[in-house]
Amino acid sequence: MSQPVRARRLTQDEGHYLLRLVRRGKHESIRVRRALIVMASASGTMVPTIARLVAADEDTVRDVIHAFNAQGLACLDPHWAGGHPRRITDADITVIVETATIRPRKHGLPFTHWSIRKLASYLSGRYGRRDPRWAPVRMVRVGRERLRQILSARGITFQRTRTWKESHDPDLEAKLDRIEEVTVRFPDRCFAFDQFGPLSIRPCHGTCWAARCHPDRLRATYQRTHGIRYFHGC
User: Fold this and answer.
1) Which residues have a Cβ under 8 Å from the Cβ of 52 and sit 6 or more positions away?
2) From the CB of residue 10, how many other CB atoms can be counted at a distance below 10 Å?
3) What local confidence, expressed as pLDDT, does residue 159 receive?
4) Which stretches of 124-163 are DSSP H helices?
5) Which of 79, 88, 200, 229 is 20 to 30 Å from 140 by CA-CA measure?
6) Is the pTM of this model over 0.70?
């Protein structure tokens, strides 16, 4: 005949902890319920009686007792894996972020930035011709709202690009040193600088998906092939 299921003898610390947990009752109900099962079983109460006490199935009571004998107080916090399995894995999220932060033209697509609709369609293989150099290894089927949530959680936002400019003049440093020398040598003089160059030299900002507070920086597209004229007045 098999032996009845019973919790092992409680240590003094375990007994005090379970008693405080049951008396206060401020924790989650599942923890209080399991604490009652363990205390009742350790005191010699049979499984059917405990099942009626906590309004649970006898098999559930036995599972809790076996878990306590094997894990101790860790059985009060069960780790259940319920629900539908994840459709978007961590590898899929990595593909989404990498694809969103690469400009569509590098994927061989005829537009400059992603929209949520275009990005979701491209990831699922329903849009455009997939360039083998840039196409993700795996296709990801994701809805627009979920895609927006993933990008926001990874700090990827839709923002304006920024441009940067630099001079190709080999004598740039010498000219800057000369200007600084003149302004220091004549502190009481007033210098006025004006600049005239090609018209419409202001670059136009674009848009892209990039990490928050780290916009994509593109080189200015205009060129000043005829130099720049400076007018100085004193």
Assistant:
1) none
2) 19
3) 81
4) 144-153
5) 79
6) no
Detail the DSSP E strand segments found in the chain: 156-160, 162-164, 192-196, 207-211, 217-219, 229-233
Q: Are the beta carbons of 155 and 101 closer than 8 angstroms?
A: no
Identify the segments of the chain with pLDDT beneath 70.
1-2, 26-28, 80-83, 127-138, 162-166, 191-206, 215-234
With beta carbons less than 8 A apart as the criterion, state whether 209 and 114 touch.
Answer: yes
Residue 128 CA to chain centroid, in angstroms? 27
Model pLDDT, residue 1: 47
Find residue 229's DSSP bridge partners.
Answer: 196
End-to-end CA distance of the chain: 112
* Contact by Cβ (8 Å): 207, 158: yes
Please identify which residue in the block is written with the tokens 């848009």: 207
* The pLDDT value given to residue 88: 86
CA distance 158 to 134: 21
Residue 31 host element (H or E): helix 29-42
Q: In this predicted structure, what is the pLDDT of residue 136? A: 47
For 229, the 3-state DSSP assignment is strand
